[in-house]
Write a structure and sequence with these properties.
Layout lengths: L18 E4 L3 H11 L1 E7 L6 E6 L2 E6 L5 H14 L4 E10 L9 E8 L20 H14 L3 E8 L9 H9 L4 E3 L2 H11 L2 E11 L8 H6 L2 H10 L3
Parallel strand pairs: 1-4, 1-5, 5-9, 6-7, 7-8
Antiparallel strand pairs: 2-3, 3-4, 5-8, 6-9
Helix pairs in contact: 2-5, 3-7
């Protein structure tokens, strides 16, 4: 495959920075480009999946939507890493808390991801592969979050294959019991693809819902109000 790829319309590798921030929502990518980046230029809008490259405090960085779920997002992860020579992808997204002490608008940094997804079933035999982010980038993000005074939790996340899941209550209880912090939908795929290509990845989340208290944030906040998460990702994004 050559560039532009079927899903990214950038005609040159130079149009995309070495680090790409990736929310699921393309409108969140647009919001970041318009409110955080200087001299932002659009490099793709194929299928409505906006991507921009600009500068944050003099550092060149890109931001692009990934769509929702592992199958959609893995298309973009593969093409960015493999065809555009991107070095680092930082997933920024909303998540549902699975623990009582993790509240709305808290930050979660993923140390690993579990999933019911079958994407790795044919790769590792009877071994249940557990993909992880880049440790140095994770450590830097945690230190920066403490410096910024953010309420931040580190631990395993669940990358669900279904948004409207009918999970067995016992399974949910066990995930809670064994310390899974929250549920989202893409990191299991991101960490797997990053490990495949020897690249770096990180997952940074804002809690938008609580599966414990049944609280939920507005659609408007989900798109534009999670500025702590955006700032943290931009601060630690490698050049």
């Amino acid at each position: 495959m050559t560039i532009p790829t079927p899903h990214i319309s950038a005609k040159s590798k130079d149009e995309i920075a070495n680090t790409v921030l990736m929310p699921g929502d393309p409108l969140r990518a647009k919001y970041i480009a318009e409110n955080f980046l200087e001299d932002a230029k659009e490099f793709t809008n194929t299928r409505g999946m906006y991507g921009y490259t600009g500068y944050y405090k003099g550092k060149r960085v890109s931001v692009m939507g990934s769509g929702m779920g592992i199958p959609s997002s893995m298309i973009y992860f593969n093409e960015l890493f493999n065809f555009y020579d991107v070095d680092t992808i930082i997933r920024i997204g909303s998540a549902g808390s699975m623990q009582e002490n993790i509240k709305l608008h808290d930050i979660v940094l993923a140390t690993s991801a579990c999933s019911e997804s079958s994407i790795n079933d044919n790769l590792f035999g009877n071994i249940h592969y557990s993909p992880t982010p880049d440790f140095d980038l994770l450590l830097e993000a945690y230190k920066k979050s403490q410096e910024l005074g953010y309420t931040t939790h580190c631990g395993q996340v669940h990358s669900s294959d279904q948004f409207y899941s009918e999970m067995d209550p016992k399974v949910f209880e066990n995930l809670q019991k064994y310390g899974v912090l929250c549920v989202e939908m893409e990191s299991y795929g991101l960490f797997t693809v990053a490990r495949k290509y020897g690249k770096r990845a990180l997952g940074v989340f804002t809690i938008s819902d609580s599966l414990v208290s049944n609280e939920s944030d507005s659609a408007e906040n989900r798109q534009s109000a999670y500025t702590q998460m955006m700032t943290l990702a931009l601060e630690v994004a490698p050049e």
